[in-house]
């Protein structure tokens, strides 16, 4: 067997664009999200190429729970979809995430929303994320960094967002704004 380790092709790996949705409603959510962005940028073969603002959003589904901070991150990565899934679960675990209550409060949630050229409707990773087109808390930050991204229903992110504006309004917090200082006491209302 010839040794190919020195051959240029042996180190060539294709980079894929991925969009990830991040959310937190427990602990110091702003710090949790900022740390998660740092962790994503440290993944092997990966580079964070765009980051949305932070959005304060009313919780959708689950028990009564505090408002969330949500954001979307664009990553260029050579990781495979399943390796990336494992890595983001490690990032959630490192943030102290427990999985006790389905749809319940969480320190950190990282969803792989869209992975260039990859579609899966069953198995451990479903992408494009099956509920992303129904969620204002996903579409609004995503529209900030990828308004023309084409979604499975044939609509752009911008068009899909226009159809969910009846959901509770989100409030944009700049990345430098402290949540403790700026979070209203009640979740945002429409
Ligand atoms: O699926 C993500 C967790 N999650 C969220 C969220 O991130 N933001 C809002 N606003 N509501 C949510 N409900 C769930 S579950």
Structure write-up:
With 190 residues, the chain is α+β, with helices and mostly antiparallel strands. It has a single domain, classed as 7,8-Dihydro-6-hydroxymethylpterin-pyrophosphokinase HPPK (Alpha-Beta Plaits, 2-Layer Sandwich). It has helices spanning 29-41, 81-94, 136-145, 157-162, 179-182, and strands spanning 16-24, 46-51, 54-57, 68-77, 109-115, 171-173. Strands 1, 2, 3, 4, 5 and 6 form a six-stranded antiparallel beta sheet that branches.
Itemize the secondary structure elements and their pairings:
Layout: E1 16-24, H1 29-41, E2 46-51, E3 54-57, E4 68-77, H2 81-94, E5 109-115, H3 136-145, H4 157-162, E6 171-173, H5 179-182
Antiparallel strand pairs: 1-4, 1-5, 2-4, 3-4, 3-6
Bound molecules: 7-(2-hydroxyethyl)-8-mercaptoguanine.
7-(2-hydroxyethyl)-8-mercaptoguanine binds next to strand 4 and strand 5.
Structural class: alpha+beta
CATH class category label: Alpha Beta
User: Radius of gyration over alpha carbons?
Assistant: 17 Å
Bound small molecules, deduplicated? 7-(2-hydroxyethyl)-8-mercaptoguanine
The major sheet is characterized as: 6 strands, antiparallel
CATH architecture: 2-Layer Sandwich
Proportion of beta-strand residues: 15-25%
Instruction: Please work out how many helical segments DSSP would assign.
Output: 5
Measure the end-to-end span.
66 Å
CATH superfamily: 7,8-Dihydro-6-hydroxymethylpterin-pyrophosphokinase HPPK
CATH topology: Alpha-Beta Plaits
Percent helix range: 10-25%
Structural domains: how many: 1
The ordered string of helix (H) and strand (E) elements is: EHEEEHEHHEH
């Amino acid at each position: 067997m010839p040794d190919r380790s020195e051959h240029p092709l042996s180190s060539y790996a294709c980079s894929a664009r991925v969009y990830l949705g991040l959310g937190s409603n427990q602990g110091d959510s702003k710090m949790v999200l900022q740390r998660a962005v740092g962790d994503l940028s440290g993944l092997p073969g990966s580079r964070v190429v765009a980051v949305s603002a932070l959005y304060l959003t009313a919780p959708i589904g689950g028990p009564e729970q505090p408002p969330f901070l949500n954001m979307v991150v664009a990553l260029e990565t050579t990781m495979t979809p399943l390796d990336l899934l494992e890595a983001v679960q490690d990032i959630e675990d490192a943030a102290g995430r427990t999985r006790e209550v389905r749809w319940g409060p969480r320190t950190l949630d990282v969803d792989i929303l869209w992975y260039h050229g990859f579609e899966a409707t069953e198995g451990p990773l479903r992408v494009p994320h099956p509920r992303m087109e129904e969620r204002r808390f996903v579409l609004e930050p995503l529209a900030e960094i990828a308004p023309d991204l084409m979604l499975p229903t044939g609509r752009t992110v911008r068009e899909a967002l226009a159809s969910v504006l009846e959901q509770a309004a989100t409030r944009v917090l700049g990345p430098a704004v402290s949540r403790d200082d700026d979070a209203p006491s009640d979740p945002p209302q429409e």
